[in-house]
Design brief:
Elements: E1 54-59, E2 73-81, E3 91-99
Antiparallel strand pairs: 1-2, 2-3
């Protein structure tokens, strides 16, 4: 009895582009290059906009529970801006609510 064994069928799609980690000081972005986050690394990723850059922010303690795992969720943060003129600097207390899971079940 002969058995006909065929090789795996290969996809004709080209492989996805290789993702690289951006290291400030070691890599320089070209003029038209934009950094994009790896969505598979974040279960919850939202953007926020402020008038001026902020070097850091702190999450404030609240009474909504530790180690929250249900969505939507709420968090409070505080930050200070770095404006182009000292008199334009602000201390911001932020309430971010209705935050929902952004990562899909397949890791994207």
């Amino acid at each position: 009895m002969e058995v006909d064994v065929q090789g795996a069928v290969e996809d004709d799609d080209p492989p996805p582009p290789e993702t690289k980690v951006f290291l400030p000081g070691r890599h320089i972005l070209s003029k038209d290059e934009i950094l994009e986050p790896d969505q598979s690394a974040y279960e919850l990723l939202h953007r926020m906009n402020v008038a001026w850059p902020c070097l850091s922010f702190d999450i404030l303690r609240d009474n909504l529970g530790d180690e929250r795992r249900n969505y939507p969720t709420t968090t409070y943060a505080v930050t200070g801006t770095q404006a182009n003129q000292a008199n334009k600097n602000e201390v911001l207390v932020l309430k971010m609510s209705s935050l929902h899971r952004t990562q899909k079940d397949d890791g994207r």
